Amino acid sequence: MTDKMHKELSLNCDICDGSCCYRGTPLYLPGERDIVVAEVPDHFEELRGSFVIPKPKGYCPYLNTEKKCSIQHLKGTDCQIYPSDPFYDDELVEFVIDMNCPVQRTLTPKFVAMALYLGAEWIHKFPKEDFDLYWDRFKRNNPEQNYTTVHDFLQNRGDRFISKVQENLRDHVDGDLSGWLRKVLFKNNLTELLVS
Ligand code: SF4
Ligand code: SF4
Questions:
Q1: What is the pTM of this model?
Q2: Residue in 75, 98, 101 to alter for ligand 2 test, most ligand atoms within 8 A of Cβ
Q3: Distance separating alpha carbons of residues 115 and 113, to the nearest angstrom
């Protein structure tokens, strides 16, 4: 199911010059990094058993000369679900949306549903203290973030949009949300998305 969702997650970044690929430093699980380096040169740096993509020239080395991602078909969850970004808050996870992303206004309910599902599953695979180390470093290097919570983002989109996010969660998670995802939705005040 997750593979299918990954394939369906595609954002039209054509109107952008890859600005998140200058600002962010994506985090990859070992298996996600393996998929990339099996096909293209290795630009990863290890961070406590996980991997980040450093930016020696100020932008991601996988950004091509047209300022587009050259590993679109290989990229990991952190890059796929952007501009949605999960991070640990206490023992649970908070989701934010980067309002500096030019396509955040056109995110579809399907994208939001998949980003919540995949992001929650993905972050759960990192030891919390390792993710916190990464996130502290990320915030230090990116003090100017313009984030809004997914809750506020959805409230601004309105009831119809919210019910479509719920429909997509139900369709793609087979009506059976994991206990972990349920906790994450509660934490983010997204109980309206819970499906039985
Ligand atoms: S996710 Fe947003 S900021 Fe990143 S390249 Fe796409 S449009 Fe640009
Ligand atoms: S891997 Fe692709 S999407 Fe991710 S930061 Fe690099 S260029 Fe951007």
A1: 0.91
A2: 75
A3: 6
